[in-house]
Amino acid sequence: MNSTTGFTKSASGIIKAIESGSKHLLIRRFTLFYPQKKLKFVGDGYQFDPQKGVGIAGTRGRHILFHEKCTGCQLCAITCEGIAEAIEMVKITESWKQNKKSIMPQIDYGKCVFCGLCVDACPFYALYMTNDYELAAFTKTHLIYTPAQLAVKPQYDGTVEIKIDDRGAYHG
Ligand code: SF4
Ligand code: SF4
Question: Ligand 2 center to residue 99 CA distance, Å?
Fold first, then answer.
């Protein structure tokens, strides 16, 4: 390679780098100052309709358990056994006529891989996922959600809505 060819290649590399970098000057910033600013998800989390046999797309955050629908059939726990062993069936103090054994799933988010297969396995519309993605805890015990905790509807205090256009995702 002679010196002229080498110079041409270097100059072309520099021009490409400037071109590529300058494109990003015009793109709106995506980084959020978490936790002061949080993502605001719209819509429900992942659900499954057992009658139609179809999943309904949504965020796979932590689950929500509808106690009035759960029969304690354990299908969610049996499904998870081969995946993460994150579900344990535990006794509840409430009594529901559809749940003769008074047992419901408890989920360990230290083990859960958020695959959603337990939601698919539930034949009674009792277990869905939600948009709640803030699950960090200081101890492993705090990652275990009892049936009572799973029944609580997440409070969304997200402040930043994500928008998507032909140049990708951005926030206002
Ligand atoms: S989402 Fe997957 S890993 Fe998590 S509890 Fe359900 S089946 Fe288990
Ligand atoms: S959540 Fe659904 S699959 Fe799990 S025990 Fe309750 S009814 Fe059965």
Answer: 10
Q: 54-98 pLDDT, tens per residue?
A: 999 998 999 999 999 999 999 999 999 999 999 999 999 999 999
Class of domain 39-162: alpha beta
Residue to mutate (ligand 1; options 117, 120, 130, 143; most atoms within 8 A of CB): 117
Is the distance from CB of 76 to CB of 150 less than 8 angstroms? Answer: no
Query: Over the range 70-79, which residues count as b (16 or more CB within 10 Å of their CB) and which as e?
Result: bbbbbbbbeb
Q: Rounded CA gap, 29 and 24, in Å?
A: 9
Q: Determine the distance separating the centroid of ligand 2 and the alpha carbon of 41, expressed in angstroms.
A: 26
Could you identify the atom of ligand 1 that is nearest to the CA of residue 121? 7
Within 8 A by CB and 6+ apart from 14, the residues are none
